[in-house]
Specification:
alpha+beta; seven-stranded mixed beta sheet; six-stranded mixed beta sheet; 37% helix; binds flavin-adenine dinucleotide
Length: 511
């Protein structure tokens, strides 16, 4: 008997999920194949079309699905993302710090953060422990063109055109992985006696039955929300942003530098994202409608764009996207599991949405239930894990806001109010005042944010961990010295060896 997996929704969540499951379970021989993957997409509801920054996990996802990096980079106008650069988050001026994808030198064997804290606080943390921020400043690629696909000198993810990404995944999943595609608007659900979904019914009247239904229908949440009415938990009291204005602006020419990082520039009531692709930049302002009206937000966005000589001058008409930051109370109910925006969305900071889609789809694919009885057990486990991940995401994003010294607007003052800070984050901050986040930070096997990420944000924002000089042992101190020399040496080597992003990506077009 074949397991029929029905995915509702053809946005990034739907196609990534289809690709991951089909690549693992749908062999080329249809006689021996044990799983069928069907994706149903409404012709009437557009997908989000934003979501252009990924984590390094996307390299594994693409490889796993069977897409060549070269094809991906050309089909999706993609570029390399090596870090997030935060501008004006602590003082509201031009100060900045990097959160790179490469961990600090010696990560896992020695707490270089504590040594830095005790001895070198006058130098910025990231450049003291890692080469990546320095190479980002020069817009360098994370690899040379001679290196194999997906290999790297510096860890990286991507910036991509979300519309083209969906098109590429669609074609690959249908042509190479045997995913069946049905265009049709799901109107309602036919329940089975045990409360499961027996089939979904399209506007055309067609019934599609299945064993496992994956709701990737975005804000419509047609199965998890409309059918099952699983409550949505707003987190707006913690993360205030609820509106985005999104623009796509061409580069002034096809020779302008392509940045190696997502630039997040803090504003009075939110922040502006800036993502550089091969041919254009995706720029948008995400803000809280409790603290700013749309006109003020638009003005800040236009000012950001109009001040930049590297952008072509053009008519600016941003797309407005409203959302409530939060997530479902549970994610897997009966034989239905939600992935992507139908499960939740908080805000674009640190690009946590696509990685959660990848991780959720991977988990489901690895544990694909063989019997109905297994599904109930797996659902419990998935719900527990996913809830922990949401809590982790919310704490980590809030961390970016609570450490600010900004007092210039109600928005930033409100972010520092203790009643807006989850207890788990308050506890962590208490601990981090006495010791740097380390390997024992989390008991979770599947944590999203390593303690390295926490260190970059904490010390980038000027947080103080009270470690006195001399507290570290002699052996540890000499190891740190060696690591520091290695970082300096490595930085020099990379600066002279790596091409710029522009050179690397333009080079792909020539071959
Ligand atoms: C402003 C903004 C910026 C973002 N930036 C990032 C980022 O940099 N990095 C990141 O990781 N994430 C980012 N995200 C999140 C990211 O965009 C989403 O996680 C991603 O696009 C996945 O969306 P989705 O597939 O869940 O939903 P959608 O893209 O909305 O797709 C929903 C699909 O469901 C279908 N559908 C809806 N109703 C029905 C129905 N009744 N019947 C059949 N089909 C139906 C639609 O046709 C569509 O195909 C951002 C989000 C926003 C709002």
């Amino acid at each position: 008997m074949k397991t029929r997996v029905i995915i509702v929704g053809g946005g990034t969540a739907g196609w990534i999920t289809a690709g991951i499951i089909a690549a693992q379970h749908c062999t080329e021989n249809s006689l021996t194949q044990t799983t069928e993957v069907v994706l149903v997409e409404s012709p009437d509801v557009k997908n989000l079309g934003v979501g252009e920054g990924t984590w390094p996990t996307m390299r594994d996802t693409l490889r796993q699905i069977g897409i060549s990096e070269r094809t991906f980079l050309s089909c999706c106008d993609a570029s390399f993302k090596q870090a997030s650069k935060f501008v004006a988050w602590s003082e509201g001026k031009k100060e900045h710090y990097y959160h790179p994808f490469t961990a600090p030198a010696g990560y896992g064997s020695v707490s270089i953060a504590e040594h830095w804290s005790a001895t070198h606080r006058d130098i910025d943390f990231e450049s003291w422990v890692c080469a990546q921020g320095t190479t980002c400043k020069q817009n360098l690629a994370p690899k040379t063109s001679k290196m194999p696909e997906y290999a790297f000198a510096l860890n990286y993810g991507y910036h991509l055109n979300a519309g083209k990404f969906v098109k590429m995944l669609h074609q690959h999943c249908v042509e190479k992985l045997g995913v069946q595609y049905i265009q049709g608007h799901v109107e309602h659900v036919l329940p089975a006696e045990n409360g499961d979904i027996a089939s979904i019914v399209l506007v055309s009247g067609e019934h599609i039955d299945g064993d496992l239904f994956i709701d990737c229908s975005g804000f419509s949440a047609i199965l998890i929300g409309k059918h099952y009415e699983i409550p949505f938990k707003s987190k707006q009291h913690i993360l205030f942003n609820d509106t985005a204005l999104a623009l796509q602006v061409d580069h002034a020419s096809d020779e302008v530098p392509i940045a190696s990082c997502t630039v997040a520039t803090a504003q009075k009531s939110g922040w502006v994202w800036d993502i550089s692709l091969q041919n254009r930049r995706g720029i948008g302002h995400v803000f809280s409608s409790d603290f700013s009206d749309v006109e003020q937000a638009e003005e800040a966005l236009f000012k950001y764009v109009q001040n930049d000589p590297l952008l072509a001058s053009q008519q600016l008409s941003p797309r407005k996207i409203k959302f409530t930051p939060g997530h479902r109370e549970t994610f897997w109910h009966k034989n239905c599991v939600a992935i992507g925006v139908s499960a939740g969305f908080v805000e674009p900071l640190e690009a946590t949405a696509l990685v959660l889609i990848e991780k959720s789809a991977e988990w489901i694919s690895q544990q694909l239930p063989r019997e109905r009885s297994a599904m109930t057990v797996l659902a419990k486990r998935f719900n527990l894990l996913t809830l922990q991940r949401w809590q982790e995401i919310i704490d980590f994003l809030k961390l970016h806001y609570v450490l600010t010294n900004r007092e210039d607007s109600e928005y930033w003052r409100a972010h520092q109010q203790p009643d807006s800070i989850p207890e788990s984050l308050q506890d962590a901050l208490t601990l981090w005042r006495t010791q740097a986040p380390g390997l024992y930070e989390s008991n979770q096997r599947f944590e999203l944010f390593s303690s390295a990420s926490k260190q970059y944000v904490l010390y980038g924002m000027g947080f103080h961990t009270a470690r006195e000089q001399g507290v570290l042992g002699r052996q540890e101190t000499s190891m740190v010295k060696r690591l520091r020399n290695e970082t300096l040496h490595n930085t020099e080597k990379l600066l002279s060896a790596l091409p710029t992003n522009r050179e690397f990506l333009n080079g792909l077009k020539k071959v």
